[in-house]
């Protein structure tokens, strides 16, 4: 994909997705550790922004492994909403590519 947007190559996008998922996962772990230690927490908006930027799988994995933010219903609803929108966009993109 040579041209004006070389950073949009499949390899670059895959690398970015792996990175954002790692960051989202780690951020959930850090926030859980801070919560247990009584330290300054990471804002929920930051956790949700990481998911919105493509880190939803990492956010869900961190949530599950660290047992963090699992009972916060507004947060859970927002994270699920992000997942639904991302899946809908992925389905749309897949259909668009498949139809030419």
Q: Kindly, what is the distance between the CA atoms of the first and last residues, rounded to a whole number of angstroms?
A: 17 Å
How many strands?
Answer: 0
Total DSSP helices: 3
Largest β-sheet summary: none
Structural class by sheet pairing and helices: mainly alpha
H-E string: HHH
Q: What form results from the Cα inertia axes?
A: elongated
Cα-atom radius of gyration: 16 Å
Strand residue percentage = under 5%
Q: Name the helicity range.
A: over 70%
Q: What average pLDDT do the residues reach?
A: 92
Give unreliable regions as ranges.
none
Structure commentary:
- With 100 residues, this protein is mostly helical.
- The protein is 78% helix and 0% strand.
- The protein has three helices and no strands.
- The chain has helices at 10-37, 44-66, 73-99.
- Helix 2 (44-66) packs across helix 3.
Question: Helices, strands, pairings?
Answer:
Layout lengths: L9 H28 L6 H23 L6 H27 L1
Helix pairs in contact: 1-2, 2-3
What's the short story on this structure?
The chain has 100 residues and is an all-alpha fold. Helix content is 78%, strand content 0%. It is built from three helices and no strands.
């Amino acid at each position: 994909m040579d041209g004006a947007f070389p950073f949009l190559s499949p390899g670059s996008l895959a690398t970015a997705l792996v990175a954002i998922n790692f960051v989202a996962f780690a951020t959930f772990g850090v926030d859980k550790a801070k919560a247990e230690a009584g330290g300054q927490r990471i804002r929920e908006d930051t956790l949700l922004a990481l998911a919105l930027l493509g880190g939803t799988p990492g956010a869900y994995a961190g949530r599950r492994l660290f047992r963090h933010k699992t009972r916060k219903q507004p947060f859970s609803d927002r994270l699920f909403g992000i997942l639904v929108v991302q899946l809908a966009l992925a389905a749309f993109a897949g259909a668009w590519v498949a139809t030419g």
